[in-house]
Amino acid sequence: MLYPMDGAFVQDDPEVHTMYKKTHGNYAPGEQKDRNYNWKVNPSEHCFGYAEKKILNGAANALHNERLEEDYPKTTIVKKTVEDHYAVANDMLGTSKNLG
User: Fold this and answer.
1) Which of 83, 61, 81 lies closest to 70 in space, CA to CA?
2) Quick one: which of 38, 51, 56, 86 could link to 47 by a disulfide (CB 3.0–4.6 Å)?
């Protein structure tokens, strides 16, 4: 039931609630599971998996990208013959090869 008849959330005895968590896996809505692991790090502060570097004023930097020259690789201009030789001589994995 999402909305009980009396309109108030009926809370069980904490001892009964811990018993139901252990036997039935019955957690309250939004309650975090705690498996009592012995962590070498503090799990509330540590970020698991892939995490991006936090950038201050990210939205402002996205609007003014011409000011961030260090974020983009420098353009190098080479002759077309050099690029053609590179395309034929080097094998790019997973793509078709240009034979001329």
Assistant:
1) 61
2) 51
Helices (H), 41-90: 58-63, 80-89
Quote the pLDDT of residue 61: 72
On whether residue 9 sits in a domain, the answer given is: no
The 10s digit of each residue's pLDDT in 34-83 is: 788 888 888 777 777 777 777 788 787 777 766 666 666 778 899 999 98
Q: Is-above-0.85 flag for pTM? A: no
Q: Which residue has the tokens 């698991």?
A: 48
Q: CA 74 to CA 70: how far, in whole Å?
A: 9
Q: Domain range for residue 84? A: 14-89
Confirm whether 71 is domain-assigned: yes
Question: Which tokens sit at 87?
Answer: 């395309």
The answer to whether residue 60 sits within a structural domain is yes
**Six-digit token string for 81:** 């013959």
Longest dimension (CA), the chain: 81
